[in-house]
Amino acid sequence: MTLQQRIESENMTVLAKTLKSVNPDLRVRRSRLVDESVRPDSQRNVRSNRRREHNSHTDSYDRIAETHLRKDEVLIINGFKWFGHNRNGIHKNAKCGSGGVGFLNKDYLTEIFNIGILDLSFEGILWVYLYHRLSNFRFNICVCYLPPDHSTRQVDKELFLDTLLSPVYEFQNDGLFYICGDFNSRCGDEYDYIPGVDCINMRSVLGFTRNSY
């Protein structure tokens, strides 16, 4: 196996581990993602169908930070629609992409909601909206990735957070919001909420490291 093939195989293995929460039957075979639930094994298919039936009610969408996709690459997985925001400015000799964020939405959601991209103007931040087809219900979801402190891809954290909050202020009267992702933030034993204002349970402190985020 050549170096390029080994790199691609390792990348696909990492991707498969990430996507197992969506489809537990994903495996890497010769640098390709394979859904083993389609094998002609009736007993295995019964187990897989049971898992999918359960997951269809609990995991309607999945958020992915650091997709490592390049340019216009997308994830294609049966039963899901992909919304992605790939990182720009990847070196032409890079073996793989870096950064990037995206959503995997189950196909049946498109029968219930109008789904589209709300905003992707800032690298590392992707907003997606869901409009209910039969009511005024609206749900806005954001997935984001803030590069680590002192990273070669480090961005202005104040600008990043201001950009992240802008749609919240702009569409605050249009429905619910859900923000998730990887902020690479370390707050140690400091409060991660405003006492007396936020109604959030205290967390169990596992580490005392702090960074500039």
UniProtKB/TrEMBL annotation:
<dbReference type="InterPro" id="IPR036691">
    <property type="entry name" value="Endo/exonu/phosph_ase_sf"/>
</dbReference>
<feature type="region of interest" description="Disordered">
    <location>
        <begin position="38"/>
        <end position="60"/>
    </location>
</feature>
<protein>
    <recommendedName>
        <fullName>Endonuclease/exonuclease/phosphatase domain-containing protein</fullName>
    </recommendedName>
</protein>
